[in-house]
Every structure is written in structure tokens, then in C-alpha cells.
Amino acid sequence: MLKTSRLVLRCALATLVFIAPTGQARDAQTDQLAEQDGVPVTELRAFAEVLERVRGAYVQEVDEKELIQAAIRGMLMELDPHSAYLTPDQFEDLQSSTTGEFGGLGLEVTMEEGFVKVVAPIDDSPASRAGLRAGDLILKIDDTFTKGIGLADAVELMRGEAGTEVTLSVLSEGDEKPRTVTLKRDRIQVESVKSEQLEPGYGYLRISQFQSRTGQDAQRALEKMASDGQLRGLILDLRNNPGGVLGGAVEVADLFLNSGLIVYTQGRDPQSRNDYNATPGDLLGGLPLVVLVNGGSASASEIVAGALQDQGRAVVVGTRTFGKGSVQTVLPISGDAALKLTTARYYTPDGRSIQADGIHPDIPVEVASVELLQENRPRESDLPHHLLNQRDEEARAGDREAPLASRDYPLSQALSILKGINLAERRRAGDDTEQR
């Protein structure tokens, strides 16, 4: 049946090639066979006629190949914001970004109502240093308006040789008019995993993007934190993480789970469901885990947050995530080009589709700037000739750095929640001692 369909389609297209501009004699038998097989003969004929008219009558000479590529891009733009036709250069850029190095501004973007919308800036990139935020709309790139040009073309305009400049017209939520931002392109080397100790016993793992090696890097970071001292809990920071490789997200979620479903994908075919399950071995051994998210947490980030939330393994803190619940497959095609096509939706272990909805945090914490106020009450340390505490020097050294609450309010709240969970669990276990 499949071979018959292809034969009929080839016959229909062959008939279109010989159509005169006025639409003369048609092969009625071929048309009938094609229509019976579901081939949109009338629409294909209209496409061929438009192509012929443009080629013959447009005010200036056009490249027929470029016209056909433009038609392909337009067709994919009508499907959803994430499907796209990739030229050989764009395909190469996509492969580079998943391995962690490319040239540009350091932005993950999508399309919204024909405009380019920032999903998240990449850490330590020209975009993040210039103050671009999740939700910003890019209205213009140099002299090109972004309305209707397509996501792949917009990305290509923003990428370029390191050291060159690009000017963006950016509209932020709440602003009445756009602002102009000039950025210098850089070689973006994404270190997707960073870790540190926020306080003794409380670890911090930051994942800025999911790449092919992110799972391995996260495992090494966790093992190092565990070897440096006894962990009491961990904050997994996925804020402004635009996603990336599905496999990387599954591997990261698996680090904290012993069993059960992490995510499943479902395409149009009922038989196309793919389940991704956890393997034995929680690297934290069940220690308290807080996942920090915001509106820039998208796609693979939402897979991790949703899995740990549904499994009851972590408390999700922050603001509602971006809501990208679809899976794109990159399909190489002839001429070293590729097709990035949305082929499935993904679902959390409880069967939730977060498409256009997002992950809702267990404990909402809004983004805020905090000014800490000093109490005007005398303390023992204010009295003349007071006795020194053995830890005075250490405390004074720590005071030189701005408090976490004033530097990163959501992170400070996540740490407070993590410490509260740890304390509650220790008291339930009959051990109310706490490292101080």
C-alpha cells in the first residue's frame, strides 16, 4: 500500500510539472487515483502554479531553490514554534550547542505570536550580562524585524563570529516601549554543571543546560560534595535552564531515584509510547532535596522537576515553569540539511502533560530584591570589653560577603526550606542535633 501511495504521488507531481500557466489539459485518471489515496492534488497544483507565476512574473529574478526552501520553512512555521527547516549551517550549529560550545549571544529562544521570545539566557554569557531575562521579546535584530522571519533565521542572525556586535530591540514585560541593547558576540562555552557548599552540610548543584555529558558531570559533582563532608541536603537549581538533550535530563533525574517512571513520550501513533525508568541507586541516599525553578525552566528542566515532584522525591520551589511539553526529533535530509520536527509530547510519571501549563511549584517563591534591616538593639557583642567567642574571627570573615538573602532571595528561601525539612526528618528520627 505504501509503495502504491508513493507511485500515485509521483504521478501526481509529474502531472503538475507539465501544467501550462493557464492550467491546461489534466490527466483526470491520475488525479482521481491521487485523490482516492489522500493526495491533495488541487493544493499541490496551486503550489506549482504559484511557483511558476512568481518565477515568471515577479519584479526581479528569483532563485527557484530559495523559493522552495522558503515554502518549506513557511509550512513548518504553521505547525508549531519548535518545528523548523535547518540549513546545513544551522544543522551544524545545533549539533555544536548540544555538545556545549558555539558562537553567539548565549540565548535560548522560541517564537510567540510571530516574535522571538527569550526562554532563558545562558549563565555567564553576553545575554545574561546585558540583563536579558526570560519572557523578553526581541522585536528587531540589527535592521531586521523578527515578526514572521522564523526561529531558525532569527537564531542565525544572532549568531556570528566572536567579537562582532549585534543590536537588539527588546521589550520586557511591564515596559511601555522597547529598549535597545548592543551585545558583543562571544564564544559560548556552556559549563552545564556547577556545584558548591552553601553552608556546611548543604550542597548546591546548578544545571544551566542539559547536554549529552550533563548526567556524568552532575554525578561527579555530587560524589565530590559527598566526599568533602557529610551532606544533609541538596538544592538542585534549574532556574533559567532552557532544556536540551532528553537523555541528559533522564540521567540527572535518575541520580536521585531508585526506581519508577521518570518520563514517557507519546506520539500520534498509540503504539509510539516510550517509557524512561529509573535504575537502582539514589546518590543522595534519600537525603532532602529541593528543586528550584522559574519561568525560564523549560523542556528537559521540566522533565526533571516533574519526575522528582511526582515521585515525592523533592520539594519544588520557585515560580511556574515555561510549559514546553513537546519533543523534537532532528531528521537529517538530503544536502546536509535537516528537519527539526515535533514528534511527541512528554508526560510526567503521573501522566501530566505540561504543554502550555508548566510545572507548578509546591512552595511558590516569587523573584524579589530584599533589603536587610539591622535591628537597633544592643547585644552582648556591643558591650565594651565583652568576651570573645572562639568563632568570632570566622564569623567576621563571613560577614564580609553580602548575605544570601540579598544576593539571591529565592535561593535563600530554598535553603531555609531545605534546612526545615532536614530538621523535621531528624527530629522524627529522634535526633534533633543540628550542625551550627
Describe the structure.
The chain has 436 residues and is α+β, with helices and mostly antiparallel strands. The strands form four sheets. Strands 3, 4, 5, 6, 7 and 8 form a six-stranded antiparallel sheet that branches. It contains 13 helices and 19 strands. Helix 1 packs antiparallel against helix 2 (28-36), helix 8 (214-228) packs parallel to helix 9 (246-254) and helix 9 (246-254) runs parallel beside helix 10 (300-310). 33% of the residues are buried.
For the sheet with most strands, the description reads: 6 strands, antiparallel
Query: Whole-number average pLDDT?
Result: 86
- The amount of beta strand, in percent, is 15-25%
Structure summary, number of beta strands? 19
Low-confidence stretches: 1-25
| N-to-C span | 73 Å
Task: Annotate the secondary structure layout.
Blueprint: H1 2-17, H2 28-36, H3 41-57, H4 64-77, E1 84-86, H5 88-99, E2 101-104, E3 107-112, E4 115-121, H6 126-129, E5 137-141, E6 144-145, H7 151-158, E7 165-171, E8 179-184, E9 186-189, E10 193-199, E11 202-207, H8 214-228, E12 233-237, H9 246-254, E13 261-266, E14 274-277, E15 289-293, H10 300-310, E16 315-318, E17 326-332, E18 338-347, E19 363-364, H11 392-399, H12 404-407, H13 409-428
Parallel strand pairs: 11-12, 12-15, 15-16, 16-19
Antiparallel strand pairs: 1-18, 2-9, 3-4, 4-5, 5-6, 5-7, 7-8, 10-11, 13-14, 13-18, 17-18
Helix pairs in contact: 1-2, 1-3, 8-9, 9-10
